[in-house]
Amino acid sequence: MMRKTLILSTLLFLLISNAYSQAYTYGWQSLNFIAQENLFSVKCINDDIAICVGENGYIIRTIDGGEQWSQIQSNTANTLNKIDFINDTLGFILGNNGTILKTTDAGNSWDNIGIESQFHFREFSAINENAFWVAGDNTNNNIWPGGDKGILLKTINCGATWSIDSSFNNGIYSVSFVNIDTGYICANGLHKTTNSGISFETIDPQINNEEYNGTLNNVKFVNDSIGFISMNSTGGIFKTSDSGITWQPVSDQWGVFDFKVIDVCSVYCLWDDMPGKASGWALCCEENIVPILESYYFNDVSFKNNIGFGAGGYTGYTSIRDKRICKWGILVGNSSVNLNLDFEVHPNPTNGNVKIILPSKLKNFEIELIDLNGQILQKEQNIDQLNLNNYSPGIYLIKVNSDGFTKQKKIIIY
Predict the structure, then answer these.
(1) Rounded distance, CA 229 to CA 87, Å?
(2) Nearest by Cα to 177 from 227, 213, 214
(3) CA of 219: how far to CAs of 121, 205, 226, in Å?
(4) 274-294: string of b/e by CB count within 10 Å (b at 16+)?
(5) Under a CB-based contact definition with an 8 Å cutoff, are residues 42 and 50 in contact?
(6) 161, 167, 170, 176: CA torsion to nearest 10
(7) Beta strands in 3-69 (DSSP E)
(8) Are the CB atoms for 42 and 33 separated by under 8 Å?
(9) Comparing 28 with 175, which gets the higher pLDDT?
């Protein structure tokens, strides 16, 4: 199979965004924030709320789209490896030594519902709010899972009780279930269950030849038929449309550390074992697939609507780990609207009506009142006043949306 030519460019982010009337350039920008610990996972819940987790029980959360980050108490010193959410309020964090943290308030507080264990939990797959699986291994490597023992936990009551299988003779790198019965794991190969994880059969993707000699390290299924797997070393990312019977390469220039499935036609790859480390998009429903490379490499990325966050890893094709967070979106400076989308709220604090003072040239806009859990309480179109008499005292967010750009500020109601 001939290797495809790599094009170094910036992708116009039309894959996961709504169509805009103007042509904007999307890309990564480093935020003016340095974490106190190494970061291993990030989850973007909505346009405003994102959460990062990392070493020593470290949790940080933004409620204003990344402008400010606050540390959240985890009540554990264990390293936290993975964060994921089932909906806007219900989420879980997986960590070392049996740690499983649960939130029901969009990450503002966390409870430990894990087990006493020497296993380290890294991967999560849910089919609904009650039924999900947790996978892990017995290695201390927080970046590359492995080990000679694996564990798979299952719950059907949102973590109140667990069914535990620790009989695996290899660490479980990845888990992906498509329904209560059918699921896949990567554990020294690809394996499939049709009885909810009671037993697994080995699947041979028939891609381990002289050209692809990496280790299968990730599996993610979008539905019953369509799924993706990745390999490190001289591997790549591969797609199936027939429930794993056959697999076709999506991008095979380099090995893949991890990837995020946006939809059945687009994935975002964290490439490894290449000249430097980088990330980028692969459009897997097109002929002559050409990955689009960016000079950012992360431990994890997360996208929601037209924005995203990348946490940990490397930047600029170097192997120097940093503790920065990057945000994906419309690049600052591509439009005067973005630079001038500023506003003031008067009075603040308030116990009644407020007026939002907007740029004079702003004609079409939307104003939202949002609580700290991310719930939209009030929304007005092209109206620059809000009546806040009926809301409880506390801190809220006022968000202005205009022409694909957003800006928000805190307001205090007393």
Answers:
(1) 25
(2) 227
(3) 16, 12, 11
(4) eeebbbbbbbbeeeebbbbbb
(5) yes
(6) -40
(7) 7-8, 26-34, 39-44, 50-54, 59-62
(8) no
(9) 175
Per-residue pLDDT at 183 exceeds 70? yes
Query: What one-character-per-residue DSSP string does 257-310 give?
Result: EEEEEEETTEEEEEEEEESEEEEEEEETTSSS---EEESEE-SEEEEETTEEEE
Report for 160-164, 354-358, 408-412: range of highest mean pLDDT: 160-164
Please, what's the b/e burial string for 157-175 (b: 16 or more CB within 10 A of its CB; e: otherwise)? ebbeebeeeeebebbbbbb
Instruction: Write down how long the chain is.
Output: 414
Question: Contacts from 46-49 at CB under 8 Å and sequence distance 24+?
Answer: 46/88, 46/304, 46/305, 46/374, 47/304, 47/305, 47/307, 47/399, 47/406, 48/370, 48/374, 48/397, 48/399, 48/408, 49/106, 49/107, 49/374
Question: Cα separation of 162 and 230, whole Å?
Answer: 29
pLDDT at 293: 57
Cis peptide leading into residue 275 (ω within 30°): no
- Residue 14 zone, left/alpha/beta (φ > 0; ψ -120 to 50; rest): alpha
Phi, then psi, of 47 in degrees rounded to 5: -65, -20
Helix (H) / strand (E) containing 125: strand 120-126
Under the banding of pLDDT at 50, 70 and 90, the label for residue 160 is very high
Residue 56 phi/psi, 5-degree rounding, is: 55, 40
* pLDDT tens-digit map of 350-381: 888 898 888 766 778 888 898 877 788 998 88
327 CB-near residues (< 8 Å, 6+ apart): 28, 29, 31, 65, 66, 307, 308, 309, 310
The residues pairing with 28 across neighbouring beta strands, listed in sequence order, are 328
